[in-house]
Amino acid sequence: MRAGQVAAAMGLADSAAKREGLRSKLKRLVERGWAVEDGPGLFALCGPVAREIAGQPGGPAGGAGGITSSPAG
Within a domain: residue 50? Predict the structure, then answer.
């Protein structure tokens, strides 16, 4: 998803300032291993985090509840 799409999904105003702030936060999530940037400006959750949110086993906490640490370690 692009930052503007994420902002809309979160119910934020679709302004350039909100998109840029959100894009910066998404880049930090990529650096920390929580998200991936599939292409310039295209963000997605990394596999283990997506499975954890979906409630499937095999996530960083073994599917036992909330996310407790980054998927990278």
Answer: yes
Does any domain span residue 64?
Answer: no
pLDDT digits (tens, 9 = 90+) for 28-42: 999 998 899 988 989
Query: Among residues 10, 43, 38, 14, which one has the least CA distance to residue 27?
Result: 43
CA distance to 32, 52, 64, 70, per residue, from 56 (Å): 22, 6, 9, 17
pTM summary value: 0.66
Asked, for residue 60, whether it belongs to a domain, the answer is no
Total number of domains in the chain: 1
Q: Could you tell me if residue 28 is left (phi over 0), alpha (psi between -120 and 50 degrees) or otherwise beta?
A: alpha
Spatial separation of the C-alpha atoms in residues 18 and 24, rounded to whole Å: 10
Domain encompassing residue 47: 3-54
